[in-house]
Amino acid sequence: MSMQHQIMRMALSAIFCVISFCATAAEMNITASFTPSATNPENSTFTNTTPISGYCATWPQYCPVGAWGIALPLELSLKRPIVANDTPRNNPYFGLSNKARTIPVTNETTGETSQVTFRISGFSARYSLAGGDNSWVGGSFGYPNAPCQRAATLVGNSQWTAFVWTVTSADGPCYKVSTIDRTEPSRFYEMSISYELETPDPLKMSSGVYKGTAPLTVGPGGNIDFGDVYEASDTMLNINFTLTVTHELKLTPAAGAQTVALQPCPAGKICSEDEGNANWERWMVSRVTPQLSGRSAFTLSSSGGFTVFMDCADQIGNECALTSDNSGQRVPMRVAVNLPDNVIDTQTGSTVTGRPLLIGKSEGQNYFTAKTYGADKPGSIDFLVRQKDVDTMLATRPDTYRGAVTVIFDPNIY
Fold it and tell me: Less CB within 10 Å around the terminal CB: N or C of the chain?
């Protein structure tokens, strides 16, 4: 019994150790979203939805124009005294991830991948020493060394200093070298960063939530390096990216468009009922068999990608069919789609006019994408019975041929 209890205690100790180890990563969350807008149809960029925090939230009047500040969940504490005019690493030292970094993001539902580019472009912190302290090379904390730059007015009092620096993409860390010995405890807290975020083209992405993480090591020689005399509160920083894409695909049939009467009409044209009656009268004289055509109009609001295909009540080969009321005789009917001018073929980049539709969803066929958002833009479905098949229909006159076609606009093409 005693041995069993000892083994259980050892196992629990191991579990607690693992839990403690897993808790050493700080987390930052950056979010962006895209939703098409009828008021700004040309927009093809994400909107950064990350709440502003840190320096820019506390002192917005001093935040650099265009900077996007977010709190950095780390603190630094002094490990040993600072010696006057020592090397930069033995002073307040900030080696930040100032180079552009590409992070893959993955659609949680489809597995589709894209990528974002991220770079730290600014740094701020509150330093637990008096704001009036100028015992630093180059002056107060308002003035970092090159290639870093002063970005805003220094804020402080007799107990602390708050500063913000621009972090360029040039090589080299930000730091301040003390001109005096410093033995008193000090720390950097309420740290924050500004950043540059390049997002992909949302019109080339399917709807969904895309997530990715940039794991950055924190410590001497790490992705974020705070030198050798200050110790960070965590050894890892996970920057989590969440991109939300919400596309629109809304089709509105025109009044009466769900019932189409095919009319005799010259090739390439769509005729009204009156024009069709006149063309039948011409046929009675000329006996030149016409073709039959008709159109179902609609408006389409669209962004992102989709595919279009059809289902038929009856079919002949790979086309839908019309069936005789009298004899059950069937004839094929060609069905084609005309899409708004903001929509292009995914493979060729061309606009879509008179594209024949296929029965059922076929891999790689009739995939389209909106190059810009379009709201209630006109399109149509065209129906055609060829001349030779009209000859077949006329052989059973008087007769009525009927058929039913379902056209599917499917946004889930990935």
Answer: N
Beta bridge partners of 60: none
Q: For the chain, how big is the Rg over CA atoms in Å?
A: 34
C-alpha separations of 351 from 36, 100, 159, 411 in Å: 20, 36, 66, 18
Distance CA 335, CA 322 (A): 12
Cα angle value 319/323/401 (rounded, 5°): 110
pLDDT at 74 over 50: yes
CB atoms within 10 A of CB 93: 21
| Cα 279 from Cα 287, distance rounded (Å) | 11
The DSSP call for residue 129 is S
Last residue of a domain, one of 194, 219, 245: 245
Residue 399 falls inside a structural domain: yes
Closest C-alpha to 35, from 218, 205, 274: 205
Q: Which residue's entry shows tokens 């539902």? A: 109
378 upstream amide cis, omega within 30 of 0 = no
Asked if the structure places residue 18 within a domain, the reply is no
φ, ψ (nearest 5 deg) of residue 278: -65, -35
CA distance 366 to 345: 7
User: Count of domains in the chain?
Assistant: 2
pLDDT in tens, 14-50: 333 333 334 468 999 999 999 988 778 778 899 999 9
Query: Which band of pLDDT confidence, cut at 50, 70 and 90, is reported for residue 13?
Result: very low
Whole-number Å distance between alpha carbons of 148 and 263 = 74
Residue the block writes with tokens 């708004």: 340
Residue 5 φ/ψ, nearest 5 degrees:
-60, -40
Q: Are residues 288 and 216 part of one domain? A: no
- Exposure b/e, 217-241, CB count within 10 A at least 16 = b: ebbeebbbbbbbbbbbebebbebeb
Residue 410 host element (H or E)? strand 405-410
- CA torsion sign for 12, 13, 14, 18 is positive
**398 prior amide bond cis, ω within 30:** yes
Q: How many CB atoms lie within 10 A of CB 169?
A: 12
**β 236-245/93-94 pair status:** unpaired
Per-residue pLDDT tens over the stretch 351-370:
999 999 999 998 878 999 99
Domain assignment of residue 9, yes or no: no
- Structural domain contains residue 19: no
